[in-house]
Amino acid sequence: MEAGGAVAPAGHHGVRAYPGRLTMHMSFTCIVAAMGGLIFGYDIGITAGVTSMDPFLKFFRSAKERANGSSTIKYCQLDSQVLALFTSLLYIAALSASLFASTPTRLLGRRNSMMLGGVLFMAGAIGSGLAQDSWMLIIGRLLLGLGVGFANHSVPLYLSEMAFHKLRGAFNASFQLFITFGVLWANVLNLFTAKISGDWGWRLSLGGAVLPALIITLGALVLPDTPSSMIERGQLADARVLLQRIRGVCFEEVEEEEFNDLVSAALFASSEANQDEWSILLEKRYRPQLCLAIIIPFFQQFTGINAIIFYAPLLFRSLGFGDHASIICAVITGVVNVVPTLVSVYSVDKWGRRALFLAGGALMLLCQAVIAASLGAELWDWLPNCPLGWLLPSEIFPLEIRSAAQSVSVSVNMAFTFAVAQIFSAMLCHLEFGVFVFFGFFVVVMSVFIYFFLPETKEIPLEEMSQIWTNHWYWSRFVTVAVADEVEE
């Protein structure tokens, strides 16, 4: 139906739609904010290439010996826990940052949290590029991780709160799109820096992270905060004006519809202020959202996509490709990684979250089977990269716990990213093709879970999201029981 009337997405009758349309102001703010994904993607891609460069591997002598072929087992040439620790250390720092990011993101706003992430990442890039010893690399890596933690916490929240609800999926998925652009950017840079003799190659690659850090930092300077965040911090007049601009409708329509609901959500959040947001998050009424915020990031990592990207150049090198050829293969991987993400951005608000998740799961399972069956020279990574792991947790929580819940989701994501990055090389060494059977198993489990337990959130305004749980065959029991308990009290 038209804006302002009732909409009835599949399975969610009676959910209201707010008036609005695609505007230049909303498009600009969301695209600039989504560029925050560049820092995460750049680090993933640049680290994968740098750890295959001999001059860099002098910091990790055992890894260098393996890379030069001292291991007699083909797929054990990657098996260096020290090198794996360097790769995965960032995610421990990001996990810590995401847990602490909830309070500053709520009190200072999403925009300022994004800016802080950019500054920390820039400091880590400078430190890494100038490192003279392994401890300097570690400090730089930790700073990079802190930056990623703050950015990955605040950017999806910013996008979900700023975007018009009918376009929220596409704009939020653009965060993942810029992650894939960052990976590709880094892979192309590595292609050129790998040819530079001495230490300059890897230093330029690591230090080049300053550029994506500048993009998010300067971008945050020109962005407004989200209307939800403004209202939560008492800036009602500014929030009303901003909401009118980004929705492209008249003042009365904004105030009668979305603005009043945002104010009501903020008032409810302030009424809960005497209770710690973490304890609120653990209440039974939020059990469905909390479960999904933990399970979805888990599945996102245990499909194996990030592990392969982390080690792509070394992986191709161990399979007999030369140094230059292995980086070219990583570039091809980066290009192919962008394509399905573009499809996701286009289709997520048309087909819905469930359909895209299930289609992605089917394609991933097929690709894992192909990779496992042709582990030799045909080990190409063309797994589709579904962006829903970042989208869903940022859109399903109410305002009073949204920042804390995002901390949980990001920290779980980073924890399992660390785990997979740390164990992948050892698993490949001992299981060989079996590692892809392992990942394929989790793709199947993920698809079954999505089919039965994920409600559709397409075109549902954030302030109306609670209705999807009361209408769900399984999650409704938690919500109904929680409401009944509150009435009795």
UniProtKB/TrEMBL annotation:
The chain crosses the membrane at residues 26-50, 82-101, 113-132, 138-159, 171-192, 204-223, 290-312, 324-348, 355-383, 403-421, 433-454. Residues 29-458 form the Major facilitator superfamily (MFS) profile domain. GO terms for cellular component: membrane. Keywords: Membrane, Sugar transport, Symport, Transmembrane, Transmembrane helix, Transport. PROSITE patterns: MFS (PS50850), SUGAR_TRANSPORT_1 (PS00216), SUGAR_TRANSPORT_2 (PS00217). GO terms for molecular function: monosaccharide transmembrane transporter activity; symporter activity. It is a multi-pass membrane protein. InterPro entries: MFS_dom (IPR020846), MFS_STP/MST-like_plant (IPR044778), MFS_sugar_transport-like (IPR005828), MFS_trans_sf (IPR036259), STP/PLT_plant (IPR045262), Sugar/inositol_transpt (IPR003663), Sugar_transporter_CS (IPR005829). It is found in: Membrane. Belongs to the major facilitator superfamily. Sugar transporter (TC 2.A.1.1) family. PANTHER family: SOLUTE CARRIER FAMILY 2, FACILITATED GLUCOSE TRANSPORTER (PTHR23500), SUGAR TRANSPORT PROTEIN 1 (PTHR23500:SF574). This is Sugar/inositol transporter.
